[in-house]
Specification:
Distance between the termini: 47 Å
Shape: elongated
Structural class: alpha+beta
Helix content: 10-25%
Length: about 375
Amino acid sequence: MNEDGQIDLELRVAGERWRASRHSTPARVDPAMFTEKRSTGMLERTMARAAQVLAAVTVVAFVGVIFVLLVRPGLPPGPAATSPTGSVGPAPTTSPTTPAAEATATAGPSQSTAPSPTPAPVTEALRNGDSVTARGVVMGSDQDELRICKPEGSLQSGHLNPTPPMTPACPEEVSVAVIGVSAATLPGWTPVGSGGQSAYIDVHGTWSGRAIVVESAELVVWRPTTDRQAPCSSPPEGWPGEPPGSIDGETNLRQLSDAVAAAPDQYIGYWAAFVDPVKPELGRVMVVGTVGDVNSAREELRLAYPYNLCVVAVEHSAADLQSIADALGPFTVAWRPEVDEANDTVSIWLPYVDDAALNRVGQFAEAVTFDPLVAKDAVP
């Protein structure tokens, strides 16, 4: 790609991201969407949070494009793409000279079959030498720097997008460096402008400062992100069924949403689950968590939603968790506290957990889980 083509590509990417941030929320409600978000209760709050993240990332990405165009137009093109084999090759001779960075990357399996990460309690910070895994997209070049991040838009329709959106760079605020590996050996590496990006991959290695010394990398299996089972057994009369795919079904779903949202001190929210994840043809169930009496709540909500409904007891109400999320703010692109109804917590997305993050959570630790880009591997 010549210089003019590179400039056109990068300006087009920035323009598309800006236009995406201007789109309005659809007026119609698709019942399937409630199986495709991690925190599915309180639709309006989730969309507002998404708009905050998109706006923040758009600004960072646009500034990155301008920087590339004005300051660094002369960088050599990135390495040629190779057929993705799913494993990383040996480290280039230009890797950093720290002892950890001099480690040679070893081959890994062709595909990752690990489930999509879910928020989990974290009680200790990452330390140098820890074995870690990061799931995301690697961007950059060998001549400059390779970084891994989870770009907005990498999840589409509840599935991992096998071809992540092309973006100018991984903003430093939401990424970490990956070292000890050549870009062209990463699975699905595709040249973009003066650098390139990988497919959606799992990167395994050793934590060293704010970087991962890569030991292996593999493609992430394209799979649904929601496969939880409803916590209720089938009622004696059997499940009444899912709502129809019509305006009547949408109306009932909106009535359920309104009823739950109208009592934030009583309910935590609602989310979708399967009757049996192994047999998705059996249908989905809308689950509602309440801090009040389960039987009374079920009878009340059935009037709004006379379909598959499961009401369970939870420890926190939406008001409880939202007050904690607000106290842990402000919400930024690199620190995203959000109410996670299905897990009865406030989940915080961040690049990695350090001592500062643990100290910031402080007294709210009991009600908080972290959802980091880079996570410490479980000890066998």
